[in-house]
Amino acid sequence: xxxxxxxxxxxxxxxxxxxxxxxxxxxxxxxxxxxxxxxxxxxxxxxxxxxxxxxxxxxxxxxxxxxxxxxxxxxxxxxxxxxxxxxxxxxxxxxxxxxxxxxxxxxxxxxxxxxxxxxxxxxxxxxxxxxxxxxxxxxxxxxxxxxxxxxxxxxxxxxxxxxxxxxxxxxxxxxxxxxxxxxxxxxxxxxxxxxxxxxxxxxxxxxxxxxxxxxxxxxxxxxxxxxxxxxxxxxxxxxxxxxxxxxxxxxxxxxxxxxxxxxxxxxxxxxxxxxxxxxxxxxxxxxxxxxxxxxxxxxxxxxxxxxxxxxxxxxxxxxxxxxxxxxxxxxxxxxxxxxxxxxxxxxxxxxxxxxxxxxxxxxxxxxxxxxxxxxxxxxxxxxxxxxxxxxxxxxxxxxxxxxxxxxxxxx
Length: 411
Known about the structure:
Layout: H1 2-23, E1 25-31, H2 36-52, E2 56-62, H3 65-77, E3 83-86, H4 93-97, H5 105-111, H6 113-116, E4 125-126, E5 129-130, E6 133-137, E7 140-145, H7 146-151, H8 160-172, E8 176-179, H9 186-199, H10 202-209, H11 218-232, H12 249-253, E9 257-263, H13 267-272, E10 280-283, E11 295-297, E12 300-304, H14 312-322, H15 325-335, H16 350-360, E13 364-366, H17 369-372, H18 375-390, H19 395-409
Parallel strand pairs: 1-2, 1-3, 8-9, 11-13
Antiparallel strand pairs: 3-12, 4-5, 6-12, 7-9, 7-10
C-alpha cells in the first residue's frame, strides 16, 4: 500500500515536471557575429525578449560569420536550431527552394510588417511569401566632400546630366571626381550595382544575379557602356587596383578626389582620417532612367526559422519581437546601423538620418552583388568588373566570359 502511494507521488511529480516543461519552451538561436558591437546588440535583444516572455528558455550559439556560412546548410538539414541569422534576397533563395526555411508570411500579416517593413519586403519575398524578418541594414550611396562642392558652387546632383556636369567641373578644377579602391574587388561591384539599378531597375538586378539574364544582354551592355564613359572620362582615381577601400580614403581626405560610392560603415574611417561632419555629406546615387522606381543598395541581416525547427511557435514570437520599433532602435544604436522598421528612431548622426530617409522610401532594396549572386558567380563577376575598370576595351570579352561562368554556376 505504501509502495503504491509512493509510486503515485513519483508519477504525479513526473507529470508536474512534464507539464512545467511543456509550458516553458526551449528556443535555440544561432547568431553569426561575435564582434563586440553586434554581439552586444543581439544579446541585449535576447534579454529583452526573455523579460517579455519569461516562459521561454533561450539558448544562443554565437559563431564566426564565415564559419556560420560554411555550417548553415548542414545544420539546417540535420540538427536545426529554432532560429538562425542569414541574409535576404538571393542568398536566402537556395534554402527557400530546398524547403529548409519556414514561410513566415503569417508573422508579417499578424504584425503589420508589410507597412512598417515595406522597404525590405521585396527582398524578403519569394513566390509571394515572406521567409524571414530583418533587424538591421545600412545604406550605400555617394559620400562627398561638401567643402569642395561648396567652393566650386556645386549642388548635390539629382540626375545623370547633373552628375556628369559636376564631374566635369571637378576635373576642370584639378579634382578627380571619384575615389575607389578595387584591390579587394567588391567596391567595383557597388558602382556596377548602382548603374544597373538606375539604368534597368531592381528586377533586372535580381534577374541577373539569379542567372536569368545574360551578361551580354543589351540591358547589361548599357550598364557597361555608361561605366565605360565614366572610366574613359577619367572619373576614377588612378592605381585603384592597388588600393583597399581604406587606402582610397587618402585622396578623399586630402582633396584629390571629391566623391566615394560606398556604404555607411565608412563614415568612421573618414572621421578617423581627420575629416569632420562639416566637410563630408551624402547624396543618393542620381537618377539615370527618368521615372524608374528608385532602388537602393542596402545589405541587411535577418532571422529565419528553419523548416526543421522544433519550437516554431516561440520562434515566431521572437521574430515578431525583434522587428518592434523600440527593439530595433536600441539594437541599431548599439551597432551604429539603421533600423528597418519605419516607426523606429535612428541615431543622431546625420548620415544615419539621411540613410534612413533614403532606404525607408526606396522601391526595393538590393543586397549587394556578392550577396545576391552565388559565390562562384560573384567572384568571377567582380574580377571582371575590376579588369574592365583597368581596360574598358575588354568589355565584350569580359561579358562573354561571364556568360560562360554563368552557364556553369546556374545549370
